[in-house]
Amino acid sequence: MSIKRIGIIGGGQLAWMMVDASKKLGIELIVQTPSKNDPAVSIAQATVLAAVDDPAATEFLSKECDVITFENEFVNIDALSLLETEGVCFRPRLAALSPLLDKYNQRCYLRDLGLRVPQFLALEKSADIESKIEYLGFPIVLKARRHGYDGQGTFIVHDSATLSTVVNKSNTQLLVEKFVPFTRELAIIAARSVNGEIVTYPVVETQQEQQVCRRVIAPADITPEQAAEINAIAHTILNSLQAVGIFGIELFITAEGKILINEIAPRTHNSGHFSLDACETSQFEQHLRAISGLPLTNTSLHCPSAVMVNLLGYENSHGDYSKQRQKLIDIPQAYLYWYGKTESRPRRKLGHITVLLEQQNRDVIESMIQTIESIWYPG
To answer: For residue 17, how many C-alpha atoms fall within 13 Å in the half-sphere facing its CB?
Structure first.
């Protein structure tokens, strides 16, 4: 069928950044999101103002579009399954999302595929917590099994006292995993079409602080063999899920060169924002192409290197940071995206900037990061 109207569950910046691609492809976007101030409301042809996990709103959305996709993982699979059985087309399909939304289930799924992941177990509030942790040894990482993002619901724990405090304060199920002494964090964006075609973007290095992505460097400085292994991982995951659309896969690389999967996001992803300006086809266009049944296209870089820096809030305010933004725009080969959020708070993603570089040189990359962050962050 010809796809002309796409519904998006979620109205944040990931949906907002689909606008240029949707215009290029002649596709209208309709957004289900709870607030009229959410970024994508300004670009949508129509908006369903409702919580993203409201199935009645999604049923209404389905009547206004040809296919529904997702901007986040805060969905109610059980409620949406009824709509799917009634003929509503979700891409990715719900069966592809189901193993991934709970992080413990996601770990089990990847392990059962024979892919390498950190040692892990489920953690309940029970008397055997200490014996379970003794099996892994400190430090460990605790993660909320559902609804964690941008560092929320993730804790690195170094001792029993801190463990008890975190577990006792938690009101959700937890995944616990052995801390991986990685040398770098990596990510790959991969897309799979309705016909099973897969394309991948260059592997990138991501730099996290307090479990929030601060920077992305494209391409990552890894060996061709490591890049091939990561590409194979992406193919295995997307084919196993029979996924349609863009997926972001985050990974660790250790000092020995061992690659482990950290997490999978079944949607466009922060680690792929560089593609808006550094690649022939952005991740956002590729996603719309995949879910619309269009051919997938070129993912290659059209510059030697690029650096993307997230512009994070560092205060509670309602400022628009216009002076900093103007200075950032003046950087040569810089592309700034401001998400239009009306409230700043620490670690909130307010925008991002990508700078295209003439060479893949670590000193040049580090210098550019320092320039950007000295402009953005006070003091």
So the answer is: 26
